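Schema walk-through. Below, the input block comes first and the output block second. Nothing else is stored per chain. Lengths vary across the set, and this one has 140 residues.
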Amino acid sequence: MSGMFSGCISLTNIDLSNCNTNKVTNMEWMFDYCFSLKNIDLSNFNTNNVTNMERMFCRCRSLTNIDLSNFNTNNVTNMGTMFGGCSSLTNIDLSNFNTNNVISMRGMFSDCSSLTNIDLSNFNTNNVLIWELCLEDVFL
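--- output ---
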């Protein structure tokens, strides 16, 4: 699913409720450059086998909230720039994210200047090798 919707700059809503993602391992750049995307329902996504979520929502400038409570991130190693450039994103709950195997969080929340509520209470960064700029512009 790498780059599947990347560059869909006019896409505002997408229904992926019937999408079978059971065997997917790569979701990098999936919604990158979806500037107008406002609503996305990923509640049925099975992310058990995903290892790469780099730039998954990068530059989704119109996205204000996103529910990833069902995401299983046990096997993910790359979350670099996952939400980078989501300048309208105000709320995100990542309390269920398992980051034990994540090596890169580079720029994960860079340019998320509207982010006011973020739950990282369960983030384990012990194995992260690349994390610079992870929270740049979030708390500045």
